[in-house]
Amino acid sequence: MDDKEKVDIGRKFSSFKDGVQTFQDSYKAANGHYWQGIKINAAAPDTTKKPNDQSEDWSGVAIGTNEGSVEVHTYSGLLGDGYSVIMEVTDKDGAKHMKCDAFGPEALSRTFDWTEIIPLAK
How many other CB atoms are there within 10 angstroms of residue 83's CB atom? Predict the structure, then answer.
């Protein structure tokens, strides 16, 4: 992924992340835990997707992007609860890349910048 793509897609990731963060603040206050978002295609999102153990889907989240796929993972660790906001995109050369920003007590160890996804050999 070249620098221009990183900047352009990075803006979309930031918009998505900001929407999730706003939603998570309200959701945790109302429910006592963070919301989890099953991986969806951001270009044509199926906002009805949800985990089996959660009644809320994507309908309350401002996705704010049309690039790649997006998802939100939650965690409960010894230091407390948190979540990770993840985007996966394919660059102009066909390579897949992923970025993750995490929130909570384990954010530092769960956050990473754009990383190329290398498929395992078959």
Answer: 25
